Amino acid sequence: DLRKQARQLENELDLKLVSFSKLCTSYSSTRDGRRDRYSSDTTPLLNGSSQDRMFETMAVEIEQLLGKLTGINDKMAEYTNSAGVPSLNAALMHTLQRHRDILQDYTHEFHKTKANFLAIRERENLLGSVRKDIESYKSGSGVNNRRTELFLKEHEHLRNSDRLIEETISIAMATKENMTSQRGMLKSIQSKMNTLANRFPAVNSLIQRINLRKRRDSLILGGVIGICTILLLLYAFH
């Protein structure tokens, strides 16, 4: 009996969810089609009060059916846990799990469809308020609208002028930075050239000193060798 009741509720839920999904789809397509057909900003949106009432009614009915099916599943769980059905316990647990999975799928589908519908309705309400603001702006006096347009244009011109001035200042700052970096590079090159110019005379003087020492050492060595030779000759003839 519990399984029959569960199947009946599941069939009803299936039909209700299909109708509920069609309602959400028709709501979205109707709004999109109306916006595509009529390009005028003064065209009113489709009155969705009847669809909203149908949505609320179907949502309440589906929630009631989900509650009933949850109660039937709880009763089946109590029956499987009761004593006296040990031989059929595995099969009953499998059946109970299948009904629980179906309930979970229906619940998830319901909440997903409901969330989509609420998102679409919220978007349409926002677009409706924007359209009303546009209509109220266009329905104002021509003089005020003209003044507002002139003020907006003047404000846009001022913003463009500020943007051009900022770009010019940025270019000038970049040019200044480049010139400063080039001046630093020229200074470093000049210092290196001065260093090299100062080093070459020092190298020349150092080479001259080395040559002078080499000559002096050669003379000293020659003198020492000559003296030693003379002494050897004197010692040999003596």
From TrEMBL:
The chain crosses the membrane at residues 219-237. GO terms for molecular function: SNAP receptor activity. One of its GO terms (cellular component) is Golgi medial cisterna. The keyword Transmembrane applies. It is found in: Golgi apparatus membrane. It comes from the Eukaryota. GO terms for biological process: endoplasmic reticulum to Golgi vesicle-mediated transport; inter-Golgi cisterna vesicle-mediated transport; protein transport; vesicle fusion. Keywords: Golgi apparatus, Membrane, Protein transport, Transmembrane, Transmembrane helix, Transport. It is a single-pass type IV membrane protein. Belongs to the GOSR1 family. Involved in transport from the ER to the Golgi apparatus as well as in intra-Golgi transport. It belongs to a super-family of proteins called t-SNAREs or soluble NSF (N-ethylmaleimide-sensitive factor) attachment protein receptor. May play a protective role against hydrogen peroxide induced cytotoxicity under glutathione depleted conditions in neuronal cells by regulating the intracellular ROS levels via inhibition of p38 MAPK (MAPK11, MAPK12, MAPK13 and MAPK14). Participates in docking and fusion stage of ER to cis-Golgi transport. PANTHER family: GOLGI SNAP RECEPTOR COMPLEX MEMBER 1, GOS-28 SNARE- RELATED. This is Golgi SNAP receptor complex member 1. It comes from Oceanodroma tethys (Wedge-rumped storm-petrel).
